[in-house]
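FORM 12-B: Structure-to-Sequence Request
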């Protein structure tokens, strides 16, 4: 039985794919009489099977150790491409997180999309989504990881564009797809270079190659930056971060996964590539720079957003920025702790957000208020998620912050300040949103807002319990640092920064209308943060403007130079034909003479060297 659970571990991603295929009769409209619900139930069953299989494989791996499943897919000269899966405690633990959150998100979607006419298509896409994520985590080959990341990008595009009749949704799906393409192209270049250098793209083979690699500094830097580019796009890091904000136009159940475990997949690939990136100190500095800019910038931008989903999407980018900092400083353990604890808390946070949106049909913070008395379960879920996200002892993200601050305490105190500031700003933003949504007087759209139905309440309450039990699970798996090694000063500073953020958020004046300040300096700052430091406008003036001008120049060249030459030849042929038409005499002896003279001249021209 142990061999079965481990040898068939590659089937775990296949469950979601089978579920997606099974929903096709409903998605394509071939089955109408039963309604769309059976498609949802089929996908839920397949996700549950994937979770059960993951539990069985995880127990066997804990007992017998890690195992790698490997098949040769393609071989030419000295390059071999493998389809490889690694079954380890870490990879299977993350897969259990993915399948568990996917099951809860799909259960949540039963209530959230109850009246949607395309419920079967949504659940099919969620199965596709889940298969890609599980495959990325289990993959032990960069070639397979890249292929599955592309599958994940496609499923993101389809889920963001689920309500494709809305122009803004179409734009968001397109921007998300194209933005990720930039990082993917650079990652593909780095992967091709690695295949030429190492002769294999299996991670274990790459780690062995790194030990003897002798690359020029410029080559190592270019390789490292190329490998970083892909995860930068997947994790919505500066400058490829705008897509995650726009992707909030998609259904909320998909946003639950996108902001918790989808971004985790990109960061996990980066962690797997970190032993290769260390070949270039400059690439590590780039990682730290990207992470710092994103963590601080996104935390500040989140404070000025009035859309409840968008404000927390920027929070996701900020936390992934901390992960980039941890990878750039060669502390992958810190990165993994932040990733996993943040994923659970953020999934719960987006469930509470989805409950608010469905009940009020509104996600504008200026039109909400007074929901704590009307939606107690949602209020408890939001508070629990908020506490789990900030450095409040003893919940999940506290330990990721603690490890990071402790490791940077002596060598890089500036990064300690970054961690503390992000924690403070996150607590401030969560408190701001809580006051606007749950406290104060009820607004017209929140005056009659009942608690959500049981299909949404059950997964939300379940995840509340999971969030509270995360520290216990970490203790059971020996992931918590021993008390004697904890830096007491860092411990106190972290708690103080979280409490300070909550205190500032509770004390700061908040206008329900969020009117712009009449003071010009403050108004300029508000606009700067609300429009994401005018990043989109900067892109239009630089990259987009340059591409547009090049396109116009290429169009002009094609129209007036290339087409002009072709049209001139055609016009000359037409005019020549027309002129010859009027020189026709109708005498056959004249035609024969012309042919003879022409053939004679042709013979003379081809044989003149002989004469």
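FORM 12-B RESPONSE
SEQUENCE OUT:
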């Amino acid at each position: 039985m142990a061999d079965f659970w481990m040898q068939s571990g590659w089937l775990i991603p296949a469950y979601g794919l089978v579920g997606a295929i099974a929903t096709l009769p409903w998605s394509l409209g071939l089955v109408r009489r039963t309604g769309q619900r059976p498609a949802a139930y089929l996908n839920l069953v397949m996700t549950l099977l994937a979770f059960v299989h993951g539990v069985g494989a995880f127990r066997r791996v804990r007992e017998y150790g890690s195992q790698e499943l490997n098949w040769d897919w393609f071989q030419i000269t000295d390059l071999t491409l493998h389809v490889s899966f690694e079954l380890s405690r870490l990879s299977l633990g993350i897969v259990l997180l993915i399948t568990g959150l996917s099951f809860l998100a799909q259960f949540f979607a039963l209530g959230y999309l109850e009246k949607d006419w395309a419920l079967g298509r949504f659940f099919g896409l969620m199965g596709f989504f889940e298969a890609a994520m599980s495959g990325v985590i289990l993959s032990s080959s960069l070639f397979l990881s890249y292929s599955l990341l592309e599958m994940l990008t496609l499923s993101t595009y389809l889920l963001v564009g689920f309500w494709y009749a809305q122009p803004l949704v179409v734009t968001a799906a397109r921007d998300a797809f194209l933005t990720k393409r930039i990082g993917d192209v650079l990652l593909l270049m780095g992967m091709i270079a690695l295949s030429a250098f190492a002769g294999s793209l299996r991670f274990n083979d790459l780690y062995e190659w790194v030990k003897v690699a002798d690359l020029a500094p410029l080559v190592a830097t270019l390789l490292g930056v190329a490998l970083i580019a892909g995860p930068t796009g997947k994790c919505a890091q500066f400058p490829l971060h705008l897509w995650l904000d726009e992707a909030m136009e998609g259904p909320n159940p998909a946003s639950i996964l996108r902001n918790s475990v989808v971004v985790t997949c990109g960061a996990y690939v980066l962690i797997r590539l970190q032993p290769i990136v260390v070949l270039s100190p400059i690439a590590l500095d780039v990682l730290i720079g990207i992470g710092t800019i994103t963590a601080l910038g996104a935390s500040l931008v989140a404070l000025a957003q009035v859309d409840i989903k968008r404000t927390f999407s920027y929070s996701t980018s900020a936390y992934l920025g901390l992960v980039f900092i941890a990878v750039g400083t060669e502390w992958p353990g810190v990165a993994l702790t932040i990733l996993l604890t943040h994923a659970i808390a953020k999934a719960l946070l987006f469930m509470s957000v989805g409950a608010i949106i469905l009940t009020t049909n509104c996600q504008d913070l200026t039109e909400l208020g007074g929901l704590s008395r009307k939606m107690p379960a949602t209020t408890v879920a939001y508070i629990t998620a908020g506490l789990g996200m900030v450095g409040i002892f003893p919940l999940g993200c506290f330990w990721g912050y603690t490890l990071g601050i402790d490791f940077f305490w002596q060598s890089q105190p500036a990064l300690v300040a970054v961690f503390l500031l992000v924690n403070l700003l996150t607590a401030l933003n969560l408190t701001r949103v809580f006051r606007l949504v749950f406290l104060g007087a009820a607004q017209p759209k929140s005056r009659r807002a009942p608690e959500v139905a049981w299909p949404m309440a059950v997964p939300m309450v379940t995840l509340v319990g999971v969030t509270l039990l995360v520290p216990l699970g970490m203790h059971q798996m020996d992931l918590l640092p021993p008390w004697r090694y904890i830096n007491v000063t860092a411990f106190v500073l972290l708690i103080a920064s979280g409490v300070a953020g909550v205190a500032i958020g509770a004390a700061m004046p908040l206008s329900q209308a969020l009117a712009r300040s009449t003071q010009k300096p403050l108004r300029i700052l508000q606009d700067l943060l609300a429009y994401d430091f005018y990043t989109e406008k900067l892109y239009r003036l630089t990259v987009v403007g340059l591409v547009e001008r090049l396109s116009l120049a290429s169009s002009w060249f094609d129209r007036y130079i290339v087409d002009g030459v072709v049209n001139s030849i055609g016009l000359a042929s037409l005019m020549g034909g027309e002129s010859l038409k009027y020189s026709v005499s109708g005498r056959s002896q004249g035609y024969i003479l012309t042919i003879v003279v022409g053939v004679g001249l042709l013979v003379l021209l081809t044989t003149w060297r002989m004469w």
